[in-house]
Amino acid sequence: MTTDLNPMPAALARPTQTTAVEQARAVAEVLAAVQVAQQCPRDIRRAWADMQAACSRLSLAERAFYTVKNRGTSRPSIHLARELARIWGNLDYGVHELSRDDERGMSEVRTFAWDQQTNVRPSRTLQVPHQRMVGRERKPLTDLGDVYLNNQNIGARAVRECIFSALPADFVAEAQDICRQTIERGDGKPLVERIANLVQAFAGIGIKVPQIEKRLDRKRGQWTAADVADLGVVYRSIQQGETTVGDEFPPELVTVAELGGPAPRPAPSPDHASAEGGDWPPVAGPPADAPGEGSVR
């Protein structure tokens, strides 16, 4: 006769009725989604035409890109990824917070994008610290709202990559090209007026025309529609907190001569001192009124 020293409680040995119902519902939901996707496959031509029409709208094109400090050119945003996923059809995506440990200050987040028609399912599992970069230092997050927003922000970036991995590469590339062309055309306003509006917008956040000219390496009269489009992405990224003014427009270093002060005098080198017959380092001699050797006061 054997005795179980650690018997499992009956409540934990079998799932509750609610848990069993939810598990069955989840399985049925997955099977139904796959069945519907197989019975109603996407129309590639319609999806391509819808993508071209959507990316030709300025309201989407203006949100299609973002820029991040130290990352160079603009990148496609989560807004563009979600719109392309909707147009492509039979594509599910999401962000799941698997666990949250406040003592360790860490959350585990899983993101995925699932093409239910082709069964392509790229996913990411991330360890997200409850911290935020402030300058070059990490700042711990203690407020529950801040932790939630941080997890969702990191999750949105990861699910964006999952969506783009599930979509055809040429489909995404053409969408980006059309969005850039739409931004360059603007909303029908002349280029001179669009430049003036952009300069006024940047002035509102403390950026002057010389700073923009230095970034573009061109004078204001030489700016093109592509320059205005790129600057618009930078401005919106600054407004959304994805980058900062200091990162995109670093301040110029001011020299002592520009400040009007005397230039610092360099210290003589040992070779220079020995060439003139002096000692290096200089030896402190007796004071001017000090008695010499053999003198008596």
What does this structure look like?
- With about 300 residues, this protein is α+β, with helices and mostly antiparallel strands.
- The chain is about 50% helix and about 15% strand.
- Among the domains are: about 45-175, 2-Layer Sandwich (Enolase-like, domain 1), CATH 3.30.390; about 190-245, no CATH class.
- Strands 3-4-5 form a three-stranded antiparallel beta sheet, with helices on one face.
- Helix 3 packs antiparallel against helix 5 (about 80-90), helix 5 packs across helix 6 (about 145-165) and helix 8 packs parallel to helix 10.
- The radius of gyration is 32 Å and the shape is flat.
- Mean pLDDT is about 80; it is low at about 275-280 and about 290-295.
Which key phrases capture this entry?
single chain, 297 residues, alpha+beta, Enolase-like, domain 1, two-stranded antiparallel ribbon, 13% strand, disordered C terminus
Secondary-structure map with pairings?
Layout: H1 10-13, H2 17-39, H3 44-55, H4 58-61, E1 65-66, E2 75-76, H5 78-88, E3 91-101, E4 106-115, E5 123-129, E6 131-134, E7 137-140, H6 144-166, H7 169-185, H8 191-203, H9 209-216, H10 225-239, H11 245-248, H12 256-259, H13 270-275
Antiparallel strand pairs: 1-2, 3-4, 4-5, 6-7
Helix pairs in contact: 3-5, 3-7, 5-6, 7-10, 8-10
Brief rundown of the structure:
The chain is of the alpha+beta class and 297 residues long. It has 13 helices and seven strands. Helices cover 48% and strands 13% of the residues.
> Any idea what the CATH architecture of one domain is?
2-Layer Sandwich
CATH C-level class of one domain is Alpha Beta
Order of helices and strands: HHHHEEHEEEEEHHHHHHHH
> Largest sheet, if any?
3 strands, antiparallel
Mean pLDDT rating:
80
Question: What is the CATH topology descriptor of one domain?
Answer: Enolase-like, domain 1
Amino- and carboxy-terminal Cα gap: 114 Å
**Count of DSSP E strands?**
7
Oligomer description? single chain
Low-confidence stretches: 273-281, 290-297
Q: How would the global form be characterised?
A: flat
Q: Total number of helical segments?
A: 13
Class from helix and strand fractions: alpha+beta
What is the helix content? Answer: 40-55%
Q: Cα-atom Rg, whole angstroms?
A: 32 Å
Proportion of strand residues: 5-15%
- Read across the widest sheet, the strand sequence of neighbours is 3-4-5
